[in-house]
Amino acid sequence: MPMRFRFRFPLLLFFIVFTLLDPFGGVRGAGNGEASVLVSWVGKRSDLLSTVFANWGKEDARACEWDFIDCDVDGFVSGIDVRDVELNLPFPAGFASLPRLRSLVISGCNLSGVVPDEVGEFGALQVLDVSSNSLLGAIPDAIGKLRSLEELVLNSNHLTGSIPAEIGACVELKMLILFDNFLTGELPVELGKLTNLEVLRAGGNSEISGRIPAEIGNCRNLQVLGLADTKVSGSIPASIGRLTKLQTLSIYTAMLSGEIPPEIGNCSELVELFLYQNSLLGSLPRQLGNLKKLEKLLVWQNNLSGAVPEEIGGCTNLRTIDLSLNNISGTIPRSFGGLLKLEELMLSSNNISGSIPSVLANSTNLVQLQLDTNQISGPIPPELGLLKGLTVFFAWNNRLEGSIPSTLSGCESLEALDLSHNSITGSLPSGLFELRNLTKMLLISNEISGPIPPEIGRCASLIRLRLVGNRISGAIPKEIGQLSKLVFLDLSENRLTGSIPDEIGNCAALQMLNLSNNTLGGTLPDSLSTLGRIQVLDVSSNQISGEIPAGLGNLHMVNRLDLSKNLLSGPIPSSLGACSSLELLELSKNRLSGGIPVELFRLQALDIALNLSWNELTGTISPQVAHLSKLSVLDVSHNKLGGDLLGFSQLSNLVSLNVSYNNFTGYLPDTKLFRQLTAEELEGNEGLCSLAQAACFTTNGADMGEQYHRWSKRFKVAMTLLVALSAFMGMVGVLVIIRGRKVAGKDDDSEAGGGSYPWQLTPFQKISFSVDHVLKCLTESNVIGKGCSGVVYRADLGNGDIIAVKKLWPKTTTASYSYRDRHTTVRDSFSAELKTLGSIRHKNIVKFLGCCWNRSTRLLMYEYMPNGSLGRILHERGNTDGCLEWDLRYQIILGAAQGLAYLHHDCIPPIVHRDIKANNILIGLQFEPYIADFGLAKMVEDGDFARSSNTVAGSYGYIAPEYGYSMKITEKSDVYSYGVVVLEVLTGKQPIDPTIPDGLHIVDWVRQRQWRGNVEVLDPVLQARPESEIDEMMQTLGVAILCVNPAPDDRPAMKDVAAMLKEIRADKAEDHCGKVDALLKNPTAKSSSSGGGGGSGGPLMSQKHQPAQQLLCLGSGNTSVSASSSLYST
């Protein structure tokens, strides 16, 4: 018996070993089963088996030897790892039959379909990564069955629904990565059960909402918490302080409120704290000073207040601090001098006072120092010159005093310096111009004196130099010609003398040259004609003499040429007619003589102004002046010009004409423009029939002299008749008044309006219709729009003319304003609009034909716009014009900005529209924009912009937020409304759009997405446009974001908005980008969104420092440029 046992045991052992090693035994069967599962999944695309998966399914190969497959020691499939292969397959089915599958990674493979419930049967699974695919549907509840799961990576798909509470059963889970999906709902409290969790990233799910559960504090091993770009709200739970291993807290662009809990100071391992773009309140807790490992502190654009605690200076590993766009007060802590590793310090747009502490010079690694838009006073510390790595120094819009320290020349890496709008005195340090990397120097509006040092020629990288508004004297140094990269040079409003150096012609890249308002003399150098890229040349208000160089005709790209208010003499060179891009030509107030060259009348682009006034010009006006069909303003007054004015009759686009004080003779052309000219614009021409009578207007030039003599004879007869007629009209007036009193109190206003009350008509143009013609058109079938001040009709007058008529709502009239006291000044829609429209002339403002009224009805008549309103084009269903190309949208945005800038800055007193919206921007035949509907407009006297209004001003969705609590309307309210319109044009969505989730306003919706830096906010029809156009759109978006700033004082003026928009196309050099985009702190790629949105913040925030010119351009990828630096380059 014992012998038999010993005999059988070796045989049994041999059998077991042989079975395990036999390739034809049981293991082979298991392997074939697993292999068939794998092949059946990939085999749905046969082409894959012959390419990427070519060695799958071969008879002589085991699954363990296949690509992408790992096996355990027993030969069972334990891992599948497929990355960045275009599979186009559904989530694998049947993998539950792989009993030892511990890791399933199929990432970036365009998996489709849903994650099936079957995934809960993958019992051994420890890693599930199906990120960056096209998976749909919800995360299955069955995921909770995976008790061994350690990593669940589902980011960058199209998953919907909420995070299942069952996930709390995955007690071994260490990584939960869900960012960049479409998940909704609140964070489940069951997350608190995941005590082993190290990484939780659910950012980029914009519909995740609700509070952060306090139970999150139970995840004691958590190292990364990312909930950026979501709607999580409420306060940060105090339990966050229990996360002692937390390294990254990333909850930016969300809806957090309340104060930052002091318990956050217990997170001793914290390295990155990103809480920007929320609504956090209160002061920064001093306990932040306990975070000794903290490297990045970004809490910009919140509502934080109070002083910056000195304790933050104890965070000795800090590299980036951005507290900009808050309400922080107090001084800059001196303890910051201990932050020796600090690279970026951004405190812009706060209420910080005191001086710049000299101890900041201890931070020798400092790259960016942005202190602009505060109340900082005192001198600039000379110790800052020790910061050899500093690339950006912004301190504009403060109260700095003293001189610019010469020691700043030690900042050898400096690329951008902006100290504008302070009270800086002293002279320009010569060493400042020896900074070889400096690209931008802006010292606008200070009290700097002394000369420009000749060392300026050594500043070889300089692109933009603006010294406007100082007291700089002496000559322009000839060394300026060494600046071969200079694009923008503005030395205006100083005390410069001498002549313009001939060497300036060497600045071949120059696009803008402004030397106006100095006391420069000499002649214009011929070298100016070599500036082939120049677009703006302004030397007005100087003492320049001599003739205008004929070579200026070589400036084919110049669009604005202003030589006015000088001592120039001689003829106007005919070569100027070759400046084919010219939009504005200003030669007024010189001593120019001779005739007006006909070549000027061939400037097809001349659409803004031609001003030749106050010279000694002679001759007649050539009929070719009719070629200036786009011209808006023409002034030839105060010259010695003669002949008739018939040549002007074809200038249909003119809104302003002045021919006074010349030798013009004859009759006036019978056009709209001449009908509305004032006596002042015609006076001083002895031979001109300029009385406001019908006899002065003619439609042809035949026998003008004879007609004029007839008119003189008839004048005496007319005067006699006029006396008799006046007496007769007086009697009629008495009868009318008596009748009016008899019918007072009756209200029989019809749809046509007016009932039995008599009508008054005041034309502002020549009209060929009567009140009766207009009234017949005021029917419901002709209504084309309704606004807050009235209803608009399309009036076909039957004679070929079509006009637009606005009938003001009865409630907008004032009882005291009757037909018999029509000269009374009252504040109703009629008087406001009449007064406004009668005083303005601009190519982007609707033309006003006239008005008519009686006791109960007010009618305003405009030129009809057949394309309707911008709102109709953008949003009306079935409208084929809605797919506007970007070029047309840009022109509409720019034109509307220029029209609004005219109201704010060129009208005296300024005019606030108060109801800017898409429906109040009309579109002409060539899709040119016209601002309309001035029913709520106010002329603002003597700085009265902030007067409260007891009338609701504006339209829903466009009203600036400050109106809700102050009831005050300013020009900045118009800027906000305009910004909403721009967002509307860019996105194709209405301010309150049904396609925007949760009823968000378009401003909030764009803010949440715009920071991700991609084109998803743009109208879908625009997203496929060329990259160059996308760049323009995104820069325009940056301007819009400036305009809708919640703080009125932080919004730009409309003249700056118009300038920024024009520079987007006019200035292609990199220097212009800072004007529009320095405020934008947005990631620019999907990877950035993943990093930031996902919560780690690492990829988004750890970028190396870029050159300053890249920091100031949209799409640079740098997210630490201060948002307050938006207008530093204006």
Describe the structure.
With 1130 residues, the chain is α/β, with parallel strands linked by helices. The radius of gyration is 37 Å and the shape is globular. Residues 1-29 form the signal peptide.
CATH hierarchy, class of the largest domain: Alpha Beta
Q: How would a textbook summarize the main sheet?
A: 26 strands, mixed
Low-confidence stretches: 1-30, 700-720, 734-755, 811-829, 941-952, 1067-1130
Rg for CA atoms? 37 Å
CATH homology group of the largest domain: Ribonuclease Inhibitor
The geometry reads as: globular
Strand content: 15-25%
Based on DSSP secondary structure assignment, what is the total number of beta strands? Answer: 56
Can you tell me the CATH architecture of the largest domain? Alpha-Beta Horseshoe
Query: What is the count of structural domains?
Result: 5
| Helicity range | 10-25%
Terminus-to-terminus distance: 106 Å
Task: Give a nutshell description of this structure.
This protein has 18 helices and 56 strands.
Helices and strands in order, then pairings?
Layout (H helix, E strand, L loop, with lengths): L1 H20 L4 H17 L3 H4 L19 E3 L5 E7 L19 E5 L19 E3 L21 E3 L21 E3 L6 E3 L12 E3 L5 E5 L12 E3 L4 E4 L13 E3 L4 E2 L15 E3 L21 E3 L6 E3 L12 E3 L4 E3 L14 E3 L21 E3 L6 E2 L13 E3 L4 E2 L15 E3 L21 E3 L6 E2 L13 E3 L4 E5 L12 E3 L4 E3 L14 E3 L21 E3 L6 E3 L12 E3 L4 E5 L12 E3 L4 E4 L14 E3 L4 E2 L15 E3 L6 E2 L12 E3 L4 E4 L1 E2 L2 H5 L10 E2 L8 E2 L5 H40 L16 E4 L7 H5 L7 E4 L3 E7 L5 E7 L20 H9 L10 E6 L4 E6 L6 H6 L10 H21 L4 E2 L8 E3 L5 E3 L6 E2 L23 H4 L4 H17 L14 H9 L16 H17 L10 H13 L6 H5 L8 H9 L3 H4 L6 H4 L19
Parallel strand pairs: 2-3, 3-4, 4-5, 5-6, 6-8, 7-9, 8-10, 9-11, 10-12, 11-13, 12-14, 14-15, 15-17, 16-18, 17-19, 19-20, 20-22, 21-23, 22-24, 24-25, 25-27, 26-28, 27-29, 28-30, 29-31, 31-32, 32-34, 33-35, 34-36, 35-37, 36-38, 37-39, 38-40, 40-42, 41-43, 43-45, 44-46
Antiparallel strand pairs: 1-2, 47-51, 48-49, 49-50, 50-52, 51-52, 53-56, 54-55
